[in-house]
Amino acid sequence: MTTATIKGRPRGFDRDQALEAALMEFWRHGYEATSIATLTRAMGINPPSLYAAFGDKRKLFSAAVQRYAQTHGDYGSRALDQPTARGVVETMLRLAATEYTDAHHPPGCLVIDGATNTSEASQDVAEELRAYREDTKHAIADRITADIQAGSLPPKTDAPALATFYAAVIQGMSTQARDGASEQDLQRVADVALAAWPA
Predict the structure, then answer these.
(1) Which of 66, 20, 56 is nearest to 35 (CA)?
(2) Considering only Cβ atoms within 10 Å of each terminal Cβ, which end of the chain, N or C, has fewer?
């Protein structure tokens, strides 16, 4: 149990465990479909404790997304450790296939699917997740550009288009996982996608 306090009183729950529980609810149902009642039940706390510890549902969601990026969704940053653009893309695809179908958590990707069908009132949530996706896509494009400049990719390679293609594949893999695709299915998708890599 954490020793952090709220207004001088000991906080009677483990913040990390509560945040992980909230993450799972947002991942499973999406931002708008996840209610405060659902969250507090999953987190094992009451609404005042949620507001005191996390601010509100919107701030809790941002904290959950940050946790996701550092845990279940860290395959993107892990892939960027590879020395070549192709290595980055292949590692990202392979890890996504494994992570999206892991039976220990909801299928797919929170950053891809967490703001599906949001209303006008929640457009800031959609924009937050879009920014994560765009950052990853731009990081892939930067690595492709670096390899073009180094001479390991053809000079006429369209780095932004190639990065967008692989980003689209990864997003599609998330949807397929939510529709019941297995890891083996998604690894085959990765095989086909990698066949499009410039010679």
Answers:
(1) 56
(2) C
Tell me the CATH class for 72-196.
mainly alpha
Cβ neighbours, 10 Å, residue 172:
15
Q: Are 19 and 62 in contact (CB under 8 A)?
A: no
Q: What are phi and psi of 82, to 5 degrees?
A: -70, 150
- Cα angle 41, 58, 10; round to 5: 55
Cα 195 from Cα 58, distance rounded (Å): 41
DSSP secondary structure letter of residue 10: E
Alpha carbon 85 to its chain centroid, in Å, reads 20
Show me where the domains of the chain are located: 15-55, 72-196
Task: Please give the CATH superfamily to which domain 15-55 belongs.
Answer: Homeodomain-like (1.10.10.60)
DSSP 59-120: HHHHHHHHHHHHTTTTHHHHHTTSSSHHHHHHHHHHHHHHHHT-TTS-SS-HHHHTTTT--G
Question: 183 near 104, Cβ under 8 Å?
Answer: no
